[in-house]
Amino acid sequence: MQSLVWISRQLTRLTAWVIILAALVAMAEPATFAWVKGDTQVAVLGVIMLGMGMTLGKEDYRILVQRPLDILIGAVAQYTIMPLLAIAVAKILGLSPGLTLGLVLVGTCPGGVSSNIMSFLAKGDVAFSVGMTTVSTILAPVMTPLWMTVLVGQTVDMDGWGMFRFMLLVTLLPVVLGSVANILLQRKHWFEDVRNIMPGVAVLAFACIVGGVAAVHGHHFRNSVAVMLVAIAIHNIGGYVLGYYSGALMGMSTAKKRTLAIEVGVQNAGLATGLSAKFFPGNAESAVAAAVACVWHSVSGTVLGNLFAFWDKRRSR
């Protein structure tokens, strides 16, 4: 079991490379990941969210009660900056309807499940990070369909109610089940081992989702890769900057500002990829944009966390 825990830690540390490798393998040999579609893809998404739920215990919910103002500021920043920035970037760059749909979908999803690790690397406020991720995920079944309907509902066939029901099933229910299991079984040694393995399982699950998209739509990566990367980068980096200065505007400490930057900028693009495949199956560009964002956010968030830590080391000399 300890070897599996070690493997899980290495997979978590190398998240971006694992996802990139999966995408490359899928494009070279599509049959490798062609099975990740339909109900299988839904199940894989559920596993990711279950793993997140298994990290939430009584102390995490206590944080929500003890720090309501911080969490409120974070939630407002999360669900205003990224959706509005996504549609603004799409309009400024004149993105195609498909790329616009993918970027807005990424922007309206909750914070990324790896953002807590990135906040730790950045010497941020990890408790604040966990609280923000928890609340943004709980709000996602309402906020994601709502923003999608408002921002792109006039230009695409949008089933907001269907997305709401789907997200309750695939995001909120697994998180609740995982969290309840953690609260009831956290003192069991075997459960602690399972919980320690789940981050690695989540990384592999993310890789499978991205691989599934690349297997089906891999040829679309080459068609608009340059403008896609520019749009994703501007959206992501803009989220970091606006998140950080939102914290500064509210008089937050350096640790909280760093956490807010990461929580706002890093989105659950794996969820966006799954939602795109489920609700917009005929729109290849949307799924590809979300899959590329999944890789980009994993890399940039880790780099930003390490840059913050490096800055602290230089200042302490």
Automatic annotation (TrEMBL):
Membrane topology: Multi-pass membrane protein
InterPro entries registered for this protein in UniProt: BilAc:Na_symport/Acr3 (IPR002657), Bilac:Na_transpt (IPR004710), Na+/solute_symporter_sf (IPR038770)
Location(s) in or outside the cell: Membrane
One family name in Pfam for this protein: SBF
Annotated TM spans: 40-57, 69-93, 99-121, 128-150, 162-185, 197-219, 225-248, 260-280, 286-311
Presence of the UniProt keyword NADP in the record: no
Keywords from the UniProt entry: Membrane, Transmembrane, Transmembrane helix
Name listed for the protein in its UniProt record: Bile acid:sodium symporter family protein
